Amino acid sequence: MTFLSATLDRVKPSPTIAVTTKAAELKAAGRDVIGLGAGEPDFDTPQNIKDAAIAAINAGKTKYTAVDGIPELKQAICAKFARDNGLTYSPAQVSVGTGGKQVLYNAFMATLNASDEVIIPAPYWVSYPDMVLLAGGTPVTVEATLEANFKITAEQLEAAITPKTKWFLFNSPSNPTGAGYSWDELKALTDVLLRHPHVWVMTDDMYEHLAYDDFAFCTPAQVEPQLYDRTLTVNGVSKAYAMTGWRIGYAAGPEALIKAMRKVQSQSTSNPCSVSQWAAVEALNGTQDFLAPNNEIFTRRRDLVVEMLNQAPGIVCPKPEGAFYVYPSIAECIGKTSAGGALIENDEAFATALLEEKGVAVVFGAAFGLSPNFRVSYATSDEALKEACQRIIDFCNALK
């Protein structure tokens, strides 16, 4: 008899965290390593947001709060949804958690039973399937290929729905590909969902404000108002506001679902950090002037990485619409041998050899459910990106 829960056998540790940890360990040991695995901006949290947190501390706002968010933050979230997405919610329809990950997990824990299925387009954020498994459900992946610009079609969604389907989990712009669905592309998916009233929509909009060129962000309940009563719209302040460590995510949806998620949170973490909540109030209510300049920097970095990686033999790197990732294919590298003698039998072997031989840390594609690829986060300096991409080019040039 094992002491640990059998539930843990269904899941694995986060590969992205593992890559970041490995890169940090090698740096600490004196290795010259460039980490392109972390999914967080290198920008500092804007000063007005930090000042709001300091003011909250000085005002003694350091006690327990309501389980799923202070009233001021819920009001700010309602205002944000109305302002940015044309969606009307009341504070009773809002839940605030310790990051978007907890909000998603709470929703699964509150709704999934053993036979329930969750449709997840692949490539997906590494935590999606494992959260479903921890909650007792079954993840059903639908493959979005490079040829389809990493987006699933209405026909694929239709084919994946069964009587056991409870959720369709949607993420645009995407982690790990940066792919963003246009209004028409999303409307095609919501038309399918209208035909299946037992399927709810969970949409992860964490990269909403990281949209480039002519891409215009949209979210399912905005595109199809008839889905409003069965959509949980999830967002947070981590990415666009450079607040990853503050750990504030939020969601809005039907009041009964929010109440059930509150029950889960009340018996797990209880309230998110009080100081972080006050900082998030300022993030949502305060100036948004820094978003456009930051996006200009990300656009420049994206173009730099895409151009350089497409110079590497065996790599095909599409240009994404948003987020701060690229997801190049290495199909033509498979089966070759590195200068250090490593056989590139899959994308994990590619990433391992790249780290060991060139000191560049990326996340292998199998972690995201689609191979052979790897993910690069370009949320770091231009200098580091240029050096890392040149090392990747050199690595690929040496493959035999």
UniProtKB/TrEMBL annotation:
Residue ranges of domain Aminotransferase class I/classII large in the record: 32-392
EC number of the protein: 2.6.1.-
First-tier enzyme category under EC: transferase
Catalytic activity: L-aspartate + 2-oxoglutarate = oxaloacetate + L-glutamate
Domain of life: Bacteria
Keywords on record: Aminotransferase, Pyridoxal phosphate, Transferase
GO MF terms, alphabetically ordered: L-aspartate:2-oxoglutarate aminotransferase activity; pyridoxal phosphate binding
The keyword Transferase is annotated on this UniProt entry: yes
One Pfam family named in its UniProt record: Aminotran_1_2
GO biological process: amino acid metabolic process
Entry-linked InterPro entries: Aminotransferase_I/II_large (IPR004839), AspAT/PAT-like (IPR050596), NHTrfase_class1_PyrdxlP-BS (IPR004838), PyrdxlP-dep_Trfase (IPR015424), PyrdxlP-dep_Trfase_major (IPR015421), PyrdxlP-dep_Trfase_small (IPR015422)
Record's keyword annotation contains Acetylation: no
Xref: SUPFAM superfamilies: PLP-dependent transferases
Subunit organization: Homodimer.
PANTHER family, alphabetized: ASPARTATE AMINOTRANSFERASE (PTHR46383:SF1)
Entry similarity comment: Belongs to the class-I pyridoxal-phosphate-dependent aminotransferase family.
Protein name: Aminotransferase
